[in-house]
Structure formats: C-alpha cells, structure tokens
Write a structure and sequence with these properties.
four-stranded mixed sheet; about 10% strand; 5 helices; about 130 residues; alpha+beta; disordered N terminus
Length: about 130
C-alpha cells in the first residue's frame, strides 16, 4: 500500500538543482522514493526564498540542508543518511554511523561541500566563496 503524497514524508532535502553531481543523486533518489518519503526542494528554483525558512542562501549553498517533519534541521551527511534510510537502505545507513566510518564520511563531505562549485565547474568571480 502506498502512502498518499503530500505531508506524509520523513525528510525534506534542500538541494542545489544547478549542481550536476547533486542533481544526479537527487534524480536517483526520486526514482527510488516510491513511497514518497522524501520531500525535494530545489534551492535554485527562482520561487525558492531562503528567508521563508529562516536561513540565508549562503547557508543553503554551504552544505546540504534537511528538515524533519517536526521542523528540526539537519545538515551534511545526516541528510544523506535520512534520505537513504527513507528509500529502504536502513541497514547500510547504520554502518555509516560507526565511529570511524562516520568521521571519514563527515570529513569527506565537508571537503566536497567546500569545493563543490569548483568541482562542478561553476566558479565565477567570487562565486566559490561560500564561507
């Protein structure tokens, strides 16, 4: 039995729809999300307004952001954990919480997030400065 679409979701992800690598993963997750457990929000959409969420565009661009149904915010690797758990990869996600694995994933993601515009060829004058 499938859930109705709408407000019955486990995690909302705020993704950069202009990031080719990010978009590839989001497309894959959308295909896998048959139960509609993930709410996808594209921060590159012209109708997206970060102030509506109490955040700046700089915060959304600095690292992936997520929101849980209770309104609490998550970011970084935890967003990916929640998305992959939502599509049925809970046992694999549990492995990513092991102390050594978790530390390595957090470090790897921080490096990627800091350099993602450069890595995806989207640097322009000053555009890579997301600090």
């Amino acid at each position: 039995m499938s859930k109705p679409s709408g407000d019955d979701w486990q995690v909302e992800v705020f993704f950069d729809g202009e990031c080719p690598l990010c978009l590839r993963e989001i497309r894959m997750l959308r295909r896998m999300d048959r139960q509609k457990n993930i709410r996808f929000t594209d921060i590159a959409d012209p109708t997206f307004h970060p102030a509506d969420y109490g955040k700046s565009m700089q915060e959304f661009m600095a690292e992936i952001q997520g929101r849980l149904p209770d309104g609490s915010w998550i970011r970084g690797v935890e967003v990916f954990r929640r998305m992959y758990a939502a599509v049925g990869f809970g046992p694999l996600v549990a492995l990513t919480r092991l102390p050594g694995v978790s530390c390595m994933l957090d470090l790897g993601y921080r490096i990627f997030a800091k350099n993602r515009l450069r890595l995806t060829g989207r640097c322009s004058e000053g555009a890579c400065d997301v600090n």
